[in-house]
Specification:
428 residues; alpha+beta; Rossmann fold; 2 domains; 41% helix; elongated; RNA-binding
RNA sequence: GUGCCUGUAGCUCAAGGGUAGAGCGCCUCACUGUGGAUGAGGAGGCUGCGGGUUCGAAACCCGUCAGGCACCCCA
């Protein structure tokens, strides 16, 4: 094949895909603003050093698109936003009023093996609350996630938000007698428990250096769904989440750890109830990140959601919205060569009045034009043929009801606006 | 980056060494001023790409690219 193919792991966005992206963005914006968050964005290109400091070096070493610029400096296509956020906050840490509530939606790149729910170029919603180190702030983040899920039609029966706290997890490991040096290895082990079978996991646990008694205690801790009660932070977290109306989505899950190294407190993720897909969204508390990139210490908490998994889950639960891909309020049909010019004039008048107007550009048969309008989902067709022109009228056909009426051309704009408003209401 | 599976029409899939098919979609017509329904007809393929085996390859072999599954990691 001589055709140049698309880059591995990238997606083409046809109009129907774009309609979904716009809908997703609109939903994200609505929920973010509902909680008073401000939109921002960082650059798509960053120095590799920004990520090297933290993130977990696998992310930058193995999974970033990195290239030297013309001066030889290593540049990365951003694999995540939180370090850029930390840099931006650090740069103005003395002047930004706190708390800082910011959200963003934009493209990211990771050099991964593409799979279902995983691409190399994806969009991600990031939302963070900085300057507040309280369980109630963490609960707000979870409540935002819950509000979003509810808004897009995914109820608590379809999606669960699973919560843990690394401070609690660390205490549990200490009480089992696992030395601090071994902690991150054990965290990684816990993180993989669902993916490995029980036998493979135990073998892996022994390889990590856990003795029989420690292994038993670890198993017991991971099975204890009530351990959150021993944590002040988690008790306050769940109480606040309850007050915020998000409790139905939430569950304490001691096996949730998350891979990123910079999390210092709560860690959590949302998964479909059947456990079929990857995490829909994930986040947690990161209290040391701002100081790590050179700012005053500012605590932070937040989460990120990719556009790929959420779409799969929406499809699975039949919650994908039916979206129009054609924005036109009406199409003008004119099927005699002599009526093309009056049709163009009418289109111009409609547009001047603020209407979105598509003009059918050929003198094709009327059935063909109506079929086109139907397939495009255009709600209204203005027919301007010799009969209408002769009587200075235009025929307006409602494509959903099939009703049509003749209107004097001077009155057409007002009438079309009425009809368009009536159309817009049910679908809004 | 590693292992396994799969690439046939726009989509979902048949044909498992001997002329490449179906359903859906698309186009045309019935209906040259009225869409969706129905019927009839039509277009569309170097079987992902490159090489090999064979009289003959969509099929068998090798490579490569892409997708899927698992690992790794994560949105």
């Amino acid at each position: 094949m001589t055709a140049i193919t698309s880059v591995k792991g990238t997606r083409d966005f046809y109009p129907e895909d774009m309609a979904f992206q716009r809908w997703l963005y609109a939903s994200i914006r609505a929920v973010s603003e509902q909680f008073g968050y401000q939109e921002y964005d960082g650059p798509f290109l960053e120095r590799v050093d920004l990520y090297a400091a933290r993130s977990g070096d696998e992310l930058v070493r193995e999974q970033s698109f990195v290239f030297p610029d013309r001066s030889g400096e290593l540049i990365a296509l951003r694999p995540e936003l939180t370090p850029s956020l930390a840099r931006m906050i650090a740069a103005r840490s003395r002047v930004l009023p706190r708390p800082i509530r910011w959200w963003s939606f934009g493209p990211f790149w990771r050099y991964e093996q593409p799979q279902r729910g995983r691409s190399r170029e994806f969009f991600q919603w990031n939302i963070d609350l900085l300057g507040v180190n309280s369980p109630e702030a963490d609960a707000e983040m979870a409540a935002i996630a819950a509000a979003f899920l509810g808004r897009v039609g995914l109820g608590p029966d379809a999606v669960r938000i699973l919560i843990n706290d690394r401070r609690l997890a660390e205490l549990q490991l200490q009480s089992i007698g696992i030395p601090t040096a071994q902690q991150s290895a054990v965290f990684r082990l816990i993180d993989r428990r669902d993916r490995l079978g029980p036998d493979a996991w135990e073998a892996e646990a022994r390889r990590t250096g856990l003795e029989g008694r420690q292994l038993e205690q670890l198993q017991a801790a991971l099975a204890d769904r009530e351990a959150w009660r021993t944590s002040d932070e988690l008790r306050r977290f769940f109480r606040a989440a309850e007050a915020l109306g998000a409790a139905q989505y939430l569950e304490y899950d001691p096996t949730v750890i998350r891979g990123l190294d910079y999390y210092t407190g709560t860690v959590w993720e949302a998964r479909d109830a059947a456990g079929e897909y990857r995490a829909i969204l994930g986040g947690g508390r990161y209290d040391d990140l701002i100081s790590a990139v050179g700012g005053d210490p500012i605590p932070g908490t937040g989460f990120a959601m990719g556009d790929v998994v959420i779409r799969l889950v929406l499809e699975k639960y039949d919650a994908l919205p039916k979206l129009r891909t054609n924005p036109a309020d009406l199409m003008i049909a004119s099927f005699e060569v002599e009526s093309l010019e009056p049709a163009l004039q009418l289109a111009a008048r409609f547009r001047s009045a603020g209407l979105r107007v598509e003009w059918y550009p050929q003198a094709d048969r009327l059935p063909k034009q109506l079929k086109f309008a139907d397939r495009q989902g255009i709600p209204l067709v203005a027919i301007l043929g010799p009969e209408e022109i002769g009587s200075k009228q235009v025929t307006l056909k409602n494509m959903q009801t099939g009703n049509q009426e003749s209107v004097a051309i001077e009155l057409a704009i007002a009438r079309v606006k009425e009809l368009a408003a009536a159309q817009a209401r049910p679908s809004a």
